[in-house]
Amino acid sequence: MTDPRAWQLSRTFPSAAGTVRWERFGPEDAAPVVLLHGTPFSSYVWQEIAQALAQRYQVYVWDMPGYGASEKREGQDVSLAAQGGVFAELLAHWELTRPSVVAHDFGGAVALRAHLLHGAAYSRLALVDPVALAPWGSPFFRLVGEHAPVFEQLPPALHLALVREYIRSASHRGLRDDVAEELVRPWSGETGQAAFYRQIAQADQRYTDEIQEKYAGIDLPVTVCWGAEDTWIPVAKAHELAAAIPGARLQLIPDAGHLVPLDAPAPLLAALLDFLTAPA
Q1: What is the CB-side half-sphere exposure of residue 138 using CA atoms within 13 A?
Q2: Are 31 and 40 in contact (CB under 8 A)?
Q3: pLDDT in tens, 172-181
Q4: Which of 3, 94, 143, 163 is deepest in the core (most CB within 10 A)?
Q5: Cα–Cα distances in angstroms (integers) from residue 205 to residues 80, 187, 215, in the given order
Q6: Bridge-partner residues for 12, per DSSP?
Q7: How far apart are the first and last CA of the chain?
């Protein structure tokens, strides 16, 4: 596995929701693939897959505003509505008209909103354990969202312990300590702690309710990849989502939880390469 400390996003974009950190890998003349992360994660979850895809594709990764290395500030709009707009902005900034898009967790909702509401065009869309169908949000997630100001006051050590255990629960195989700490690190310190509870407080199911009925009108190749052992979003949602999108194919990834890109990078990469190279 790649050294976590080597993952750096060197480029910036001043989006409407805050400065975005992003990076591009691979040959500039290759077909573009954009990777979207979920919550409470960052582009780091794609580290191995991004570098493997960059052998044959031009790969774009980014941290959403309020996440990872991107800007975090008081009063920031980090909702799914805002992130969908930011993604559309980024695609225009990158001058990408029809990239392939691979999106995990909340990133799935962001990619779907950008496509269905902002007119972002993709050549293909891979959805990996996405937040896309109601109902969503665990009891813990709802509890924190309803009492975010209280949780913001936790002593730093207790806050980090909570975040650490929450992130580890997304993995079926278990995370290496240094990998887990890299995922926890953006949520440390006063700014990071406030940002963690801010993004949960702004997570509202209405942002997927607004687009769920539009899935039947999606007209591009779509694959749904899902960790067979996902305890965050039941695998039944994988079947439901694949059935809701015309022509979508479903691939379950065995022995993987919600954090498929880290639990099973090789099987997921194989599934993505098969999808990206298949005839349209």
Answers
A1: 13
A2: no
A3: 999 999 999 9
A4: 163
A5: 9, 23, 16
A6: 21
A7: 32
Taking each helix axis from N to C terminus, what angle separates 156-168 and 189-201, rounded to the nearest 10 degrees? 50
pLDDT confidence bin for 143, thresholds 50/70/90:
confident
For the chain, the three-class secondary structure string (H helix, E strand, C coil) is: CCCHHHCCCCEEEEECCEEEEEEEECCCCCCEEEEECCCCCCHHHHHHHHHHHCCCCEEEEEECCCCCCCCCCCCCCCCHHHHHHHHHHHHHHHCCCCCEEEEECHHHHHHHHHHHHHCCCCCEEEEECCCCCCCCCCHHHHHHHHCHHHHCCCCHHHHHHHHHHHHHCCCCCCCCHHHHHHHHHHHCHHHHHHHHHHHHHCCCCHHHHHHHHHHHHCCCCEEEEEECCCCCCCCHHHHHHHHHCCCCEEEEECCCCCCHHHHCHHHHHHHHHHHHHCCC
Q: CB count, 10 Å around CB of 161? A: 13
pLDDT of 2 over the 60 cut: no
The Cα 268–Cα 272 span in angstroms is: 6
Tens-place pLDDT, residues 13-54: 999 999 999 999 999 999 999 999 999 999 999 999 999 999
Structure tokens, 66? 């309020």
Give yes or no for residue 1 having a pLDDT over 60.
Answer: no
- Which residues are 36's β-sheet partners? 103
Task: Report the alpha-carbon angle 235-240-244, nearest 5.
Answer: 145
Q: Provide the pLDDT for residue 83.
A: 98
Handedness of CA 38, 40, 42, 44 (dihedral sign): negative
Which of 137-146, 156-165, 209-218 is least confident?
Answer: 137-146
15: amino acid identity, one letter? S
Q: Please tell me the distance from the alpha carbon of residue 78 to that of residue 70, in angstroms, as a whole number.
A: 11
